[in-house]
Amino acid sequence: MHARADAADTASDWPDDIFATLQRFDVRQVPYVPDAGHSKLIQRVLDSSTMRGIALTTEEEGVALLAGAWAGGQRGVLLMQSSGVGNCINMLSLIPILRFPFLTLVTMRGEWGEFNPWQVPMGSTTQGVFELSGVKVLRASHAAEVPAVLEAAASQAYNALTPTAVLLSQRLIGAKVFTK
Amino acid sequence: MSKANLLDRRQVVSTLLANRKDIVAIGGLGASTNDMCAAGDHARNFYLWGGMGGAAMIGLGLALAQPKLPVLVITGDGEMLMGMGSLATIGLQKPANLSIAVLDNEAYGETGGQTSHTSAAADLVGIARACGINDSRAVTTMAEIEAFAKAVHDVSAGPRFANVKIDSAGLERILPTRDGTYIVNRIRADLGFQPI
Hints:
The complex is a heterodimer.
Chain A (H helix, E strand, L loop, with lengths): L1 E4 L8 H11 L2 E6 L6 H9 L4 E4 L4 H12 L3 E2 L1 E4 H6 L6 H5 L4 E5 L12 H13 L3 E5 L5 H14 L4 E5 L1 H4 L1 E4 L2
Parallel strand pairs in A: 2-3, 2-4, 5-6, 6-8, 7-8
Antiparallel strand pairs in A: 1-9
Helix pairs in contact in A: 1-2, 1-7
Chain B lengths: L8 H8 L7 E4 L3 H8 L6 E3 L7 H11 L5 E6 H6 L2 H9 L4 E7 L2 E2 L5 E2 L8 H7 L4 E5 L2 H11 L7 E6 L14 H11 L6
Helix pairs in contact in B: 1-2
Protein backbone atom coordinates (compact mmCIF):
# COMPACT_ATOMS: atom_id res chain seq x y z
CA MET A 1 0.00 0.00 0.00
CA HIS A 2 1.18 3.49 -0.50
CA ALA A 3 0.19 6.99 0.46
CA ARG A 4 1.45 10.43 -0.30
CA ALA A 5 3.64 12.35 2.12
CA ASP A 6 4.62 15.99 1.96
CA ALA A 7 1.56 16.58 -0.14
CA ALA A 8 1.17 20.30 0.36
CA ASP A 9 0.02 20.82 -3.21
CA THR A 10 -1.95 17.65 -3.83
CA ALA A 11 -5.22 19.15 -2.70
CA SER A 12 -4.89 21.97 -5.19
CA ASP A 13 -6.30 22.20 -8.67
CA TRP A 14 -3.12 22.22 -10.70
CA PRO A 15 -4.21 19.27 -12.90
CA ASP A 16 -7.32 21.28 -13.77
CA ASP A 17 -5.09 24.21 -14.68
CA ILE A 18 -3.12 21.96 -17.01
CA PHE A 19 -6.29 20.60 -18.59
CA ALA A 20 -7.63 24.12 -19.20
CA THR A 21 -4.40 25.19 -20.89
CA LEU A 22 -4.34 22.11 -23.13
CA GLN A 23 -7.95 22.75 -24.08
CA ARG A 24 -7.21 26.37 -24.94
CA PHE A 25 -4.36 25.26 -27.22
CA ASP A 26 -6.70 22.87 -29.04
CA VAL A 27 -4.84 19.73 -28.01
CA ARG A 28 -6.71 16.72 -29.36
CA GLN A 29 -4.62 13.58 -28.85
CA VAL A 30 -3.30 12.72 -25.40
CA PRO A 31 -1.16 9.56 -25.37
CA TYR A 32 -0.15 8.44 -21.90
CA VAL A 33 1.44 5.79 -19.77
CA PRO A 34 -0.32 6.04 -16.42
CA ASP A 35 1.29 7.63 -13.41
CA ALA A 36 -0.25 8.39 -10.05
CA GLY A 37 0.82 12.02 -10.41
CA HIS A 38 -1.08 12.28 -13.70
CA SER A 39 -4.18 10.39 -12.57
CA LYS A 40 -6.45 13.40 -12.21
CA LEU A 41 -5.38 14.91 -15.54
CA ILE A 42 -5.79 11.55 -17.30
CA GLN A 43 -9.32 11.29 -15.92
CA ARG A 44 -10.14 14.81 -17.14
CA VAL A 45 -8.86 13.84 -20.61
CA LEU A 46 -10.82 10.58 -20.69
CA ASP A 47 -13.98 12.48 -19.69
CA SER A 48 -13.39 15.15 -22.35
CA SER A 49 -15.37 15.36 -25.58
CA THR A 50 -12.60 17.16 -27.48
CA MET A 51 -9.52 15.23 -26.36
CA ARG A 52 -8.77 11.58 -26.92
CA GLY A 53 -6.80 9.80 -24.23
CA ILE A 54 -4.69 7.03 -25.75
CA ALA A 55 -3.22 4.45 -23.39
CA LEU A 56 0.22 3.27 -24.54
CA THR A 57 2.20 0.15 -23.75
CA THR A 58 5.46 2.13 -23.77
CA GLU A 59 6.18 5.84 -23.98
CA GLU A 60 8.03 5.86 -27.30
CA GLU A 61 4.74 4.94 -28.97
CA GLY A 62 3.49 8.37 -27.93
CA VAL A 63 6.29 10.23 -29.73
CA ALA A 64 5.50 8.45 -33.00
CA LEU A 65 1.76 8.95 -32.46
CA LEU A 66 2.21 12.73 -32.12
CA ALA A 67 4.13 12.80 -35.41
CA GLY A 68 1.23 11.09 -37.16
CA ALA A 69 -1.31 13.32 -35.44
CA TRP A 70 0.49 16.43 -36.71
CA ALA A 71 0.70 15.07 -40.26
CA GLY A 72 -3.07 14.66 -39.97
CA GLY A 73 -3.58 18.17 -38.61
CA GLN A 74 -3.91 17.62 -34.87
CA ARG A 75 -1.88 18.64 -31.84
CA GLY A 76 -1.12 16.30 -28.99
CA VAL A 77 0.66 16.06 -25.67
CA LEU A 78 2.46 13.06 -24.16
CA LEU A 79 1.92 12.29 -20.47
CA MET A 80 4.45 10.08 -18.71
CA GLN A 81 6.61 9.73 -15.64
CA SER A 82 10.36 10.24 -15.56
CA SER A 83 11.15 6.53 -15.98
CA GLY A 84 9.42 6.63 -19.35
CA VAL A 85 11.70 9.30 -20.75
CA GLY A 86 14.46 6.74 -21.19
CA ASN A 87 12.10 4.55 -23.18
CA CYS A 88 11.66 7.37 -25.71
CA ILE A 89 15.23 8.20 -26.64
CA ASN A 90 15.56 6.91 -30.19
CA MET A 91 12.03 7.94 -31.10
CA LEU A 92 12.81 11.52 -30.00
CA SER A 93 14.95 11.71 -33.15
CA LEU A 94 11.70 12.05 -35.13
CA ILE A 95 11.10 15.48 -33.61
CA PRO A 96 13.89 17.50 -35.30
CA ILE A 97 13.65 15.38 -38.46
CA LEU A 98 9.90 15.75 -38.98
CA ARG A 99 9.59 19.09 -37.14
CA PHE A 100 6.26 18.55 -35.46
CA PRO A 101 5.10 20.27 -32.27
CA PHE A 102 6.20 18.21 -29.27
CA LEU A 103 5.01 18.83 -25.74
CA THR A 104 5.36 16.33 -22.94
CA LEU A 105 4.39 16.60 -19.28
CA VAL A 106 6.54 14.45 -17.05
CA THR A 107 5.79 13.64 -13.43
CA MET A 108 9.09 13.26 -11.61
CA ARG A 109 10.28 10.37 -9.48
CA GLY A 110 13.70 9.84 -7.96
CA GLU A 111 14.00 13.26 -6.37
CA TRP A 112 12.68 15.32 -3.43
CA GLY A 113 12.38 12.71 -0.71
CA GLU A 114 12.21 9.65 -2.97
CA PHE A 115 11.72 6.41 -1.02
CA ASN A 116 12.52 3.96 -3.83
CA PRO A 117 16.19 3.86 -4.88
CA TRP A 118 15.27 2.18 -8.17
CA GLN A 119 13.65 5.44 -9.32
CA VAL A 120 16.72 7.55 -8.67
CA PRO A 121 19.01 6.75 -11.67
CA MET A 122 16.44 7.60 -14.38
CA GLY A 123 14.97 10.45 -12.36
CA SER A 124 18.45 11.93 -12.09
CA THR A 125 19.11 11.79 -15.85
CA THR A 126 15.65 12.82 -17.08
CA GLN A 127 16.53 16.45 -17.69
CA GLY A 128 19.89 15.57 -19.26
CA VAL A 129 18.32 13.04 -21.61
CA PHE A 130 15.85 15.62 -22.87
CA GLU A 131 18.49 18.29 -23.32
CA LEU A 132 20.85 15.95 -25.19
CA SER A 133 17.90 15.02 -27.41
CA GLY A 134 17.09 18.62 -28.28
CA VAL A 135 14.06 19.03 -26.03
CA LYS A 136 13.87 22.20 -23.90
CA VAL A 137 13.06 21.63 -20.25
CA LEU A 138 10.81 23.71 -18.03
CA ARG A 139 9.99 22.79 -14.44
CA ALA A 140 7.10 23.40 -12.07
CA SER A 141 7.70 22.81 -8.38
CA HIS A 142 4.68 24.58 -6.86
CA ALA A 143 1.01 24.60 -7.77
CA ALA A 144 0.97 28.37 -8.08
CA GLU A 145 3.48 28.34 -10.94
CA VAL A 146 1.82 25.57 -12.97
CA PRO A 147 -0.44 27.84 -15.08
CA ALA A 148 2.39 30.14 -16.16
CA VAL A 149 4.79 27.28 -16.88
CA LEU A 150 2.16 25.41 -18.90
CA GLU A 151 1.28 28.52 -20.84
CA ALA A 152 4.92 29.14 -21.73
CA ALA A 153 5.51 25.50 -22.63
CA ALA A 154 2.42 25.14 -24.81
CA SER A 155 3.08 28.45 -26.48
CA GLN A 156 6.66 27.66 -27.47
CA ALA A 157 5.83 24.07 -28.43
CA TYR A 158 2.81 24.80 -30.62
CA ASN A 159 3.59 28.31 -31.89
CA ALA A 160 7.37 28.10 -32.30
CA LEU A 161 7.78 24.33 -32.80
CA THR A 162 10.22 24.26 -29.90
CA PRO A 163 10.20 20.71 -28.48
CA THR A 164 9.39 21.14 -24.80
CA ALA A 165 9.16 19.00 -21.69
CA VAL A 166 7.59 20.20 -18.47
CA LEU A 167 8.92 18.39 -15.43
CA LEU A 168 6.29 18.32 -12.70
CA SER A 169 8.47 17.94 -9.66
CA GLN A 170 7.93 15.40 -6.95
CA ARG A 171 7.63 18.35 -4.60
CA LEU A 172 4.51 19.37 -6.54
CA ILE A 173 2.93 15.94 -6.90
CA GLY A 174 3.96 14.72 -3.45
CA ALA A 175 6.66 12.14 -2.74
CA LYS A 176 5.35 8.60 -2.86
CA VAL A 177 5.83 6.60 0.34
CA PHE A 178 5.11 2.94 0.95
CA THR A 179 3.54 1.77 4.17
CA LYS A 180 2.94 -1.72 5.44
CA MET B 1 12.52 -21.31 -43.00
CA SER B 2 12.00 -20.91 -46.74
CA LYS B 3 8.68 -21.71 -48.32
CA ALA B 4 7.38 -22.02 -51.84
CA ASN B 5 5.14 -19.45 -53.51
CA LEU B 6 6.40 -16.42 -51.66
CA LEU B 7 5.13 -13.13 -53.06
CA ASP B 8 7.15 -10.40 -54.74
CA ARG B 9 7.28 -7.38 -52.43
CA ARG B 10 7.21 -4.77 -55.18
CA GLN B 11 4.21 -6.42 -56.79
CA VAL B 12 2.46 -6.55 -53.41
CA VAL B 13 3.04 -2.87 -52.65
CA SER B 14 2.19 -1.65 -56.13
CA THR B 15 -1.06 -3.63 -55.94
CA LEU B 16 -1.90 -2.19 -52.51
CA LEU B 17 -1.39 1.34 -53.88
CA ALA B 18 -2.59 0.85 -57.49
CA ASN B 19 -5.97 2.48 -57.02
CA ARG B 20 -5.06 4.47 -53.92
CA LYS B 21 -7.45 7.43 -54.27
CA ASP B 22 -7.17 9.33 -50.97
CA ILE B 23 -5.02 6.83 -49.03
CA VAL B 24 -2.30 8.20 -46.77
CA ALA B 25 0.48 5.59 -46.74
CA ILE B 26 3.26 5.19 -44.19
CA GLY B 27 6.34 3.20 -45.16
CA GLY B 28 8.33 1.64 -42.32
CA LEU B 29 12.10 1.99 -42.04
CA GLY B 30 13.87 -0.37 -44.42
CA ALA B 31 12.92 -1.83 -47.75
CA SER B 32 9.20 -1.13 -47.22
CA THR B 33 9.68 2.60 -47.60
CA ASN B 34 11.67 1.97 -50.81
CA ASP B 35 8.91 -0.31 -52.13
CA MET B 36 6.41 2.47 -51.60
CA CYS B 37 8.60 4.86 -53.59
CA ALA B 38 9.08 2.25 -56.32
CA ALA B 39 5.30 2.08 -56.69
CA GLY B 40 5.34 5.81 -57.47
CA ASP B 41 6.08 8.90 -55.40
CA HIS B 42 2.99 10.56 -53.97
CA ALA B 43 2.21 13.60 -51.83
CA ARG B 44 0.53 11.33 -49.30
CA ASN B 45 3.49 8.99 -48.85
CA PHE B 46 5.06 9.16 -45.40
CA TYR B 47 8.53 7.66 -45.88
CA LEU B 48 10.41 6.65 -42.74
CA TRP B 49 14.20 6.49 -42.67
CA GLY B 50 14.42 6.05 -38.90
CA GLY B 51 12.28 5.73 -35.80
CA MET B 52 12.27 1.94 -36.06
CA GLY B 53 9.16 0.52 -34.42
CA GLY B 54 7.15 3.70 -34.91
CA ALA B 55 5.39 3.15 -38.24
CA ALA B 56 2.15 1.70 -36.84
CA MET B 57 1.89 4.45 -34.21
CA ILE B 58 2.38 7.18 -36.83
CA GLY B 59 -0.45 5.46 -38.67
CA LEU B 60 -2.62 5.53 -35.55
CA GLY B 61 -2.02 9.24 -34.95
CA LEU B 62 -2.91 10.00 -38.56
CA ALA B 63 -5.93 7.70 -38.56
CA LEU B 64 -7.37 9.31 -35.41
CA ALA B 65 -6.76 12.81 -36.81
CA GLN B 66 -8.36 11.96 -40.18
CA PRO B 67 -11.07 9.38 -39.48
CA LYS B 68 -12.60 9.62 -42.96
CA LEU B 69 -9.35 8.88 -44.78
CA PRO B 70 -7.95 5.40 -45.28
CA VAL B 71 -4.54 5.16 -43.62
CA LEU B 72 -2.27 2.29 -44.66
CA VAL B 73 0.94 1.33 -42.88
CA ILE B 74 3.32 -0.78 -44.97
CA THR B 75 6.23 -2.11 -42.98
CA GLY B 76 8.54 -5.08 -42.46
CA ASP B 77 8.52 -7.92 -39.94
CA GLY B 78 11.53 -6.54 -38.04
CA GLU B 79 10.04 -3.06 -37.78
CA MET B 80 6.71 -4.48 -36.64
CA LEU B 81 8.36 -6.72 -34.05
CA MET B 82 10.09 -3.69 -32.54
CA GLY B 83 6.74 -1.90 -32.22
CA MET B 84 4.70 -4.93 -31.18
CA GLY B 85 3.14 -3.11 -28.24
CA SER B 86 1.56 -0.69 -30.67
CA LEU B 87 -0.67 -3.52 -31.88
CA ALA B 88 -2.15 -3.61 -28.36
CA THR B 89 -2.54 0.18 -28.41
CA ILE B 90 -4.27 0.03 -31.81
CA GLY B 91 -6.44 -2.89 -30.68
CA LEU B 92 -7.65 -0.75 -27.80
CA GLN B 93 -8.37 2.36 -29.92
CA LYS B 94 -9.87 0.42 -32.84
CA PRO B 95 -9.48 3.10 -35.53
CA ALA B 96 -11.85 1.92 -38.27
CA ASN B 97 -9.80 3.59 -41.03
CA LEU B 98 -6.39 2.09 -40.21
CA SER B 99 -4.85 -0.86 -42.05
CA ILE B 100 -1.43 -2.42 -41.51
CA ALA B 101 0.35 -4.61 -44.04
CA VAL B 102 3.54 -6.33 -42.91
CA LEU B 103 5.92 -7.49 -45.64
CA ASP B 104 7.30 -10.57 -43.90
CA ASN B 105 10.50 -12.00 -45.38
CA GLU B 106 11.41 -13.49 -41.99
CA ALA B 107 14.66 -11.55 -42.02
CA TYR B 108 16.38 -8.23 -41.36
CA GLY B 109 17.12 -7.57 -45.01
CA GLU B 110 18.85 -4.21 -44.56
CA THR B 111 21.47 -5.51 -42.15
CA GLY B 112 22.64 -8.69 -43.80
CA GLY B 113 19.60 -10.92 -43.84
CA GLN B 114 19.73 -12.18 -40.27
CA THR B 115 16.64 -14.25 -39.53
CA SER B 116 13.85 -12.58 -37.58
CA HIS B 117 11.55 -14.06 -34.95
CA THR B 118 8.85 -14.69 -37.56
CA SER B 119 11.09 -17.27 -39.27
CA ALA B 120 10.61 -19.81 -36.51
CA ALA B 121 8.30 -18.72 -33.72
CA ALA B 122 6.50 -15.38 -33.69
CA ASP B 123 3.10 -15.31 -35.40
CA LEU B 124 2.26 -11.67 -36.10
CA VAL B 125 -1.27 -12.50 -37.28
CA GLY B 126 -1.98 -14.28 -34.03
CA ILE B 127 -0.46 -11.42 -32.05
CA ALA B 128 -2.51 -8.80 -33.88
CA ARG B 129 -5.71 -10.79 -33.41
CA ALA B 130 -4.98 -11.41 -29.75
CA CYS B 131 -4.47 -7.65 -29.34
CA GLY B 132 -8.03 -7.03 -30.52
CA ILE B 133 -7.48 -6.45 -34.24
CA ASN B 134 -10.16 -8.91 -35.28
CA ASP B 135 -9.58 -8.59 -39.02
CA SER B 136 -6.10 -10.08 -39.07
CA ARG B 137 -5.10 -12.05 -42.14
CA ALA B 138 -2.26 -14.35 -43.12
CA VAL B 139 -1.73 -13.52 -46.79
CA THR B 140 0.00 -15.84 -49.23
CA THR B 141 -1.60 -15.07 -52.61
CA MET B 142 -1.98 -12.02 -54.86
CA ALA B 143 -5.74 -12.59 -54.87
CA GLU B 144 -5.70 -12.03 -51.10
CA ILE B 145 -3.60 -8.90 -51.62
CA GLU B 146 -6.19 -7.58 -54.07
CA ALA B 147 -8.95 -8.26 -51.55
CA PHE B 148 -7.00 -6.49 -48.80
CA ALA B 149 -6.26 -3.53 -51.09
CA LYS B 150 -10.01 -3.17 -51.65
CA ALA B 151 -10.80 -3.48 -47.95
CA VAL B 152 -8.35 -0.68 -47.06
CA HIS B 153 -10.79 1.82 -48.61
CA ASP B 154 -13.58 0.81 -46.23
CA VAL B 155 -13.00 3.28 -43.40
CA SER B 156 -15.78 1.83 -41.26
CA ALA B 157 -14.59 -1.75 -40.75
CA GLY B 158 -11.01 -1.54 -39.51
CA PRO B 159 -8.59 -1.77 -37.96
CA ARG B 160 -7.23 -4.54 -40.13
CA PHE B 161 -3.91 -6.30 -40.30
CA ALA B 162 -2.29 -8.44 -42.97
CA ASN B 163 0.93 -10.38 -42.68
CA VAL B 164 2.23 -11.00 -46.19
CA LYS B 165 4.82 -13.67 -46.76
CA ILE B 166 7.28 -12.30 -49.33
CA ASP B 167 10.47 -13.64 -50.82
CA SER B 168 13.75 -12.34 -49.51
CA ALA B 169 15.23 -11.29 -52.82
CA GLY B 170 17.38 -8.17 -52.57
CA LEU B 171 16.05 -5.63 -55.06
CA GLU B 172 17.46 -2.46 -56.53
CA ARG B 173 16.96 0.31 -53.97
CA ILE B 174 14.52 2.97 -55.11
CA LEU B 175 15.22 5.75 -52.63
CA PRO B 176 12.59 8.30 -51.66
CA THR B 177 13.40 11.76 -50.35
CA ARG B 178 15.16 11.75 -46.97
CA ASP B 179 13.90 15.20 -45.97
CA GLY B 180 11.45 14.46 -43.17
CA THR B 181 10.13 17.99 -42.83
CA TYR B 182 9.38 18.08 -46.54
CA ILE B 183 7.62 14.72 -46.32
CA VAL B 184 5.36 15.80 -43.45
CA ASN B 185 4.62 19.24 -44.82
CA ARG B 186 3.78 17.79 -48.23
CA ILE B 187 1.20 15.51 -46.60
CA ARG B 188 -0.20 18.37 -44.53
CA ALA B 189 -0.45 20.62 -47.58
CA ASP B 190 -2.23 17.89 -49.56
CA LEU B 191 -4.72 17.53 -46.69
CA GLY B 192 -5.34 21.29 -46.78
CA PHE B 193 -3.31 22.46 -43.77
CA GLN B 194 -1.32 25.69 -43.84
CA PRO B 195 2.27 26.03 -42.62
CA ILE B 196 2.51 27.38 -39.08
